[in-house]
């Protein structure tokens, strides 16, 4: 039994070291990717009348692929880094408007904000990660064309937020697996985006779930 416990501790130590190494590597990779994204964006904007379409398309491709890598790195960091929550009260509208400005939406995507505007006790940086993931996933599921409707309601003890999209829905076989670490149906991605969302919401003592018809992610957060 003592030998098994020692082996277990050794395996745990290895996993901790792997997590620390992964965190350092991904953090170091994020900075050069930011430079690539910023410079390709700047060059494209300043060279529209100077470069041919093929060159502009190549720059756009570099930017798009760098953004994909950046988001994958963010998924890894968000999953393995667990600093203490910094809880403050924030307006749901303020959080969502800030996120929609950050997420790359097209003219063919319409986002409807909730009619009411509850106050949420949360770590705003962490909650932004959740909504960025949900909205980005919805846009991708709709193939960059459709409607995202965000609703909010309140009970005596909880704030309930629903993110609904007009996409084709999630396979029933996958519906129960989507919050599992490393599970993904995408050809690219880490499979950690929704797992990170679940982790963050549960650290807020809340819950997150998903259903179809229409595709809806429901977040329930305690008021205090």
Can you characterise this structure?
- With 224 residues, this protein is an alpha+beta fold.
- Helix content is 52%, strand content 19%.
- The protein is built from six helices and seven strands.
- Strands 2-4-5-7-6 form a five-stranded mixed β-sheet.
- α1 (2-46) packs antiparallel against α2 (53-80) and α4 packs antiparallel against α6 (193-203).
- The longest helix has 45 residues, at 2-46.
- The chain is globular.
- The termini are far apart.
- The model has no long low-confidence stretch (mean pLDDT 82).
Present the secondary structure layout.
Layout: H1 2-46, H2 53-80, E1 88-91, H3 92-102, E2 109-112, E3 119-122, H4 124-141, E4 146-154, E5 158-165, H5 172-175, H6 193-203, E6 207-211, E7 215-222
Helix pairs in contact: 1-2, 2-6, 3-4, 4-6
Tell me the overall shape: globular
Q: How far apart are the termini?
A: 44 Å
The beta-strand count equals 7
| Rg result | 20 Å
| SSE class | alpha+beta
Order of helices and strands: HHEHEEHEEHHEE
**What kind of oligomer do you see?**
single chain
Notable traits:
alpha+beta, five-stranded mixed beta sheet
How would you summarize this macromolecular structure in one to three sentences?
By secondary structure, this protein is α+β, with helices and mostly antiparallel strands.
């Amino acid at each position: 039994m003592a030998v098994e416990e020692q082996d277990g501790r050794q395996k745990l130590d290895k996993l901790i070291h792997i997590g620390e190494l992964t965190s350092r590597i991904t953090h170091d990779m994020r900075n050069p990717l930011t430079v690539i994204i910023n410079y390709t964006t700047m060059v494209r904007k300043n060279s529209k009348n100077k470069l041919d379409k093929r060159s502009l398309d190549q720059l756009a491709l570099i930017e798009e692929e760098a953004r994909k890598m950046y988001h994958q790195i963010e998924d890894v960091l968000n999953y393995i880094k667990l600093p203490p929550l910094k809880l403050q009260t924030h307006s749901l509208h303020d959080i969502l408007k800030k996120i929609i400005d950050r997420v790359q939406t097209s003219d063919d995507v319409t986002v409807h904000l909730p009619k009411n505007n509850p106050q949420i006790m949360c770590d705003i940086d962490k909650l932004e990660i959740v909504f960025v993931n949900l909205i980005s996933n919805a846009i991708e599921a709709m193939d960059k064309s459709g409607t995202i409707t965000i609703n909010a309601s309140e009970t005596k003890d909880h704030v309930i937020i629903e993110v609904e999209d007009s996409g084709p829905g999630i396979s029933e076989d996958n519906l129960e697996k989507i919050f599992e670490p490393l599970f993904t149906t995408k050809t690219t991605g880490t499979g950690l985006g929704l797992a990170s969302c679940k982790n963050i919401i549960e650290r807020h003592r809340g819950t997150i779930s998903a259903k179809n018809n229409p595709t809806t992610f429901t977040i329930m957060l305690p008021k205090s």
